[in-house]
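In this section we turn from sequence analysis to structure. A common task in structural bioinformatics is to predict how a protein folds when a small molecule is present, because the ligand can shape the pocket around it. The inputs are simple: the amino acid sequence and a SMILES string for the ligand, here zinc ion. Study the lines below before reading on.
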Amino acid sequence: MEGFSCDLHIHSTLSPCGDLEMSPRNIVSKAKELGLDIIAISDHNMTENSFYAHELGEKSGVLVLFGMELQTEEEVHVLAVFDSFETAFLFQKTVYDLLPPVKNDPDFFGDQVVVDGNDRIVRFEDRLLLNSAQISITAAVSWIKSHGGLAIPCHIDSPTFSVISQLGYVPEGIPFDALEIRDIKNAHALAPLILQRHVPFVTFSDAHYLQDIGRRTTRLDLGEPSCKGIERALKALGDNDGNLSGCTSTKETTRYDG
Ligand SMILES: [Zn+2]
Ligand SMILES: [Zn+2]
């Protein structure tokens, strides 16, 4: 077993709220500079930029998984992370068809840009991505798990777009791999609202700006660096009663993270 430093919640130029410096190339070089082992590009309801980041990661020794921060019909943000672009892209297509056909207003929300590994613009996404897909959290997690992905509700200690802010608690029976929390110090207060006893906490940066990448990471001992390896490691942590030892907060900022 080897320790891997993971930041699986990073936004790119494809998120309207992501800084335009968040190109796949800049993200991967920042991750490399910080010594992160595994990252995921997790844009709102889209995964496309992870394709380019993955290619760059292969050259620089950073494993880039294919992520998405899905917004369900309950307005809950859920991290979906896959090993293959094909599966992630299939999920993107599924989710895209479930998004309301509302056009993005770049002046209000920001541009949503697919950018390749050489910082060239591939296309602008027209549909507003900051919206809820018409899929329930239960159905979404079921899709993710049946396709070999990781399903992690985001920032459960956030007052907005979290499973606790929207449902009031973390329900039983949804097979989450972990619960993402921004501040581990909140874990104790939230414990009565978590009806699943053996799901560990993780923490990731939710970076929208380059300087925020890696500000929160989770170190995991993995047999293999893959979604399956991470799933196994998280299960082992959960069986140990939600061990928090993997969560590392390097620095905090007060910047808005949507
Ligand atoms: Zn996010
Ligand atoms: Zn979010």
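The domain at 2-249 is CATH 3.20.20.140 (TIM Barrel). As an exercise, try to locate the residues that line the zinc ion site and compare them with your own expectations.
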